[in-house]
């Protein structure tokens, strides 16, 4: 079959003795779970700031949900479940505090210094910033893990996108060309990427209702979604809105998963790939939603963008978050002696883009709550101690 075979893994860029008890991809998963960056996801947000309440998804809970979906789909398609799970758990490691608002602000701060991209930051984390082993920087993940993380959204190079146009963290990785950046990722990485879509589409519905940004009635005109909510209300007329939402979201996740499996199975029968390498070399993704579902989920994305991501309450959080990160970046860049060690030692020895990247790495690794507290310590006189 076309599944990625751990027996045929292309190995690691730094040689290590194999594990006696785990496959290479199980080892990758465990290294992700034990990493500092993964642990910090518990206080990094999707949409809301972490201290707004414990009912909303964080990057950690989202990653766990993506991993569950990815593993289920991989099992049904007879792919390597451990690789799909590991990729799902690692896919958000590069996100800074405060969700997309934080990424936008860091990218603006780094405009003159090669910018900021969360996918590229994920590669930087797992190949450089996680320092846990004596013989190499990073986590020394398998080739299959690294290529899946780099090509999370598809090929990153092509006729119009040379390596020189990529984010700095991609360009700086010395083995990028070995990851075949002009091809699609392997099948397990493709599954993890669409499991991400399934999770955030449906769980944003849950969080949006829980936060009061919209109500069930607002969803009734949206294809697929409205039908699911109506079906639950007809079948269980006495359920509370909270329970209706739980059941409807559960059904919607099933609809998305079944469509993904159905369309992917159709493509498998059409393309008949005999190996993971053949999957990578195809001219289109092997794992995909059907055109029908893609068309029907566009109104949902438009609704969530307008009623959730652009809601004035969310905009206020975004505005405050951007000011916090801008202030932190400016003071650390101008006064690197205010950074804690070992960041201070590194930043005071360099200038320009190199110092800016160190500052960016430090801020990107913060949790929401730590960024707020660090801002208070630096800008609020009552924070002096």
From TrEMBL:
<dbReference type="InterPro" id="IPR006261">
    <property type="entry name" value="dGTPase"/>
</dbReference>
<dbReference type="InterPro" id="IPR003607">
    <property type="entry name" value="HD/PDEase_dom"/>
</dbReference>
<feature type="domain" description="HD">
    <location>
        <begin position="59"/>
        <end position="201"/>
    </location>
</feature>
<comment type="similarity">
    <text>Belongs to the dGTPase family. Type 2 subfamily.</text>
</comment>
<dbReference type="InterPro" id="IPR026875">
    <property type="entry name" value="PHydrolase_assoc_dom"/>
</dbReference>
<dbReference type="GO" id="GO:0006203">
    <property type="term" value="P:dGTP catabolic process"/>
</dbReference>
<keyword id="KW-0378">Hydrolase</keyword>
<dbReference type="InterPro" id="IPR050135">
    <property type="entry name" value="dGTPase-like"/>
</dbReference>
<dbReference type="GO" id="GO:0008832">
    <property type="term" value="F:dGTPase activity"/>
</dbReference>
<dbReference type="InterPro" id="IPR023023">
    <property type="entry name" value="dNTPase_2"/>
</dbReference>
<dbReference type="Pfam" id="PF13286">
    <property type="entry name" value="HD_assoc"/>
</dbReference>
<dbReference type="Pfam" id="PF01966">
    <property type="entry name" value="HD"/>
</dbReference>
<protein>
    <recommendedName>
        <fullName>Deoxyguanosinetriphosphate triphosphohydrolase-like protein</fullName>
    </recommendedName>
</protein>
<dbReference type="InterPro" id="IPR006674">
    <property type="entry name" value="HD_domain"/>
</dbReference>
């Amino acid at each position: 079959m076309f599944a990625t075979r751990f027996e045929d893994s292309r190995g690691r860029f730094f040689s290590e003795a194999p594990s006696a008890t785990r496959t290479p991809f199980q080892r990758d998963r465990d290294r992700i779970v034990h990493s500092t960056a993964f642990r910090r996801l518990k206080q990094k947000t999707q949409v809301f700031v972490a201290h707004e309440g414990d009912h909303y998804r964080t990057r950690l809970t989202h990653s766990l949900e993506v991993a569950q979906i990815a593993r289920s789909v991989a099992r049904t398609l007879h792919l390597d479940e451990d690789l799909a799970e590991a990729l799902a758990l690692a896919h958000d490691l590069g996100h800074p505090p405060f969700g997309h608002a934080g990424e936008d602000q860091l990218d603006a701060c780094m405009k003159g210094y090669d910018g900021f991209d969360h996918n590229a930051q994920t590669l930087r984390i797992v190949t450089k910033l996680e320092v846990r082993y004596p013989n190499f920087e990073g986590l020394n993940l398998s080739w299959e893990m690294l290529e899946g993380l780099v090509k999370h959204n598809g090929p990153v190079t092509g006729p119009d996108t040379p390596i020189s146009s990529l984010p700095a963290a991609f360009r700086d990785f010395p083995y990028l060309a070995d990851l075949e950046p002009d091809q699609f990722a392997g099948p397990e990485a493709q599954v993890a990427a669409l499991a991400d879509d399934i999770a955030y589409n449906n769980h944003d519905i849950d969080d949006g209702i829980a936060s009061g940004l919209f109500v069930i009635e607002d969803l009734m005109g949206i294809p697929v979604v409205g039908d699911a909510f109506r079906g639950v209300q007809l079948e269980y007329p006495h359920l509370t809105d909270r329970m209706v939402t739980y059941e409807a979201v559960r059904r919607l996740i099933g609809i998305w998963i079944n469509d993904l499996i159905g369309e992917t199975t159709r493509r498998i029968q059409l393309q008949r790939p005999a190996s993971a390498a053949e999957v990578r070399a195809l001219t289109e993704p092997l794992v995909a939603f059907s055109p029908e579902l893609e068309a029907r989920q566009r109104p949902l994305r438009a609704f969530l963008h307008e009623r959730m991501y652009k809601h004035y309450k969310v905009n206020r959080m975004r505005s405050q978050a951007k000011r916090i990160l801008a202030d932190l970046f400016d003071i650390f860049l101008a006064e690197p002696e205010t950074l804690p060690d070992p960041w201070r030692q590194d930043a005071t020895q360099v200038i320009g883009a190199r110092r800016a990247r160190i500052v960016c790495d430090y801020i990107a690794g913060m949790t929401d709550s730590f960024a707020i507290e660090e801002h208070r310590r630096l800008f609020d006189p009552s924070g002096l101690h």
